[in-house]
Amino acid sequence: MPAKGKHRRPKSQRFARSIAVAGTGGAALALPLMGATGAHAATSQSVSEKAVQSLPVTQKSAEKTAAKASTVRTYSVRAGDYLSKIADEQNVSGGWKKLYADNRSAIGDDPSLIHPGLKLSIGKKAKTESSASSSSSKAKKTEKAESKSSSNSTAATQSSATTSSSGYTLPVTGATIGTGYRVAGSMWSSGYHTGVDFVVPTGTSLKAVAAGTVVSAGWGGAYGNQVVIKLNDGYYAQYAHLSQLSVSAGQTVTEGQQIGLSGATGNVTGPHLHFEIRTTPDYGSDVDPVAYLRSKGVAVG
Predict the structure, then answer these.
(1) Percentage of residues of the chain with pLDDT beyond 70
(2) Which residues contact 120 (CB under 8 A, 6 or more apart)?
(3) Alpha carbon distance 19, 196 (integer Å)
(4) I need a surface site. Which of 70, 197, 218, 290 has the fewest CB within 10 A?
């Protein structure tokens, strides 16, 4: 009979916290269920948290890449610019043809006729995937190097082909003269034509009539895109209405070297080369260009 006033406290069942696993020798191994459950939960939580935490970083990276790829820049054409020059300087993938295709509605049907102030979109149809890989970069550098090498080779060939024994040559090969020098007319501010017009289609190669230094190359108002060269004998040769410029101010040129392409920029009724010989680089100091060239041994038709 149990002692009075004392009660035996029954032993609590420990199955809630552990489970007995029978061993080969009849021994039991107690595994704490709470501990195992906690460890399992911690492991699952850790993996889950890592996955959740890494997701925003991936999303942000993708968003930045997409935003960068779709960026469209606006370029304002400056005096002396032409599409291939802009495409090269702005690293346009696809060159001037891609630049022209993206801006054809603004430029018009003739890609050679652009003017200062014209707004061009750069990267208008950029790809959504990243294209800044090292292999792509190397390919672009190789392409530019090959392009420059080709241009230098072409310029050298043109120079050697047009060089004469007198050191002077025609500004354009195989062209006929349209409007002559000193032809009177109200369309000219001076009241007469200050040069001669060589009738050539847009894109015809124009050459330095002799060795000298480029004093200006860019927009010339009514003259459109123009180049003025101080020749080594002290006279100045002016080329007007060009569609593209191949030289820049301060550059030295040799006889027969390409200085640009003919066009119809400025105040014109059609494509041609307006050519002047001056005693200074300024308007109004003109002399007869045909007589000048003939005095240098150049046959002018």
Answers:
(1) 58
(2) 74, 75, 76, 77, 86, 99, 102, 103, 106, 107
(3) 110
(4) 70
Q: Using one digit for the tens of pLDDT, what is the confidence trace for 94-119? A: 887 888 889 888 877 666 566 777 88
CB pairs under 8 A, 24+ apart, for 187-190?
189/222, 190/284
Written in H, E and C, the secondary structure of 201-249 is CCCCEEECCCCEEEEEEEECHHHCEEEEEEECCCCEEEEEEECEECCCC
Nearest-10 Cα torsion for 268, 272, 277, 282: 30
Residue whose token pair is 């080594």: 232
Locate 134 and state its tokens. Answer: 């090292």
Distance in angstroms between the alpha carbons of the first and the last residue of the chain: 146
- State the CB neighbour count (10 A cutoff) for residue 107: 20
Token duo for residue 89: 């300087």
pLDDT at 76: 87
Cα–Cα distance for residue pair 298/301, rounded to 1 Å: 10
Instruction: Walk me through the domains of the chain, giving residue ranges and CATH numbers.
Output: 73-132 (3.10.350.10), 176-295 (2.70.70.10)
CA dihedral in degrees (204, 209, 210, 215; nearest 10)? -80
H-helix segments, 78-133: 83-89, 95-102, 104-107
The reported pLDDT for the residue numbered 59 is: 58
Residues in the chain with pLDDT values less than 70: 1-70, 79-80, 109-114, 124-165, 185-191
Q: What are the tokens at 224?
A: 């459109």
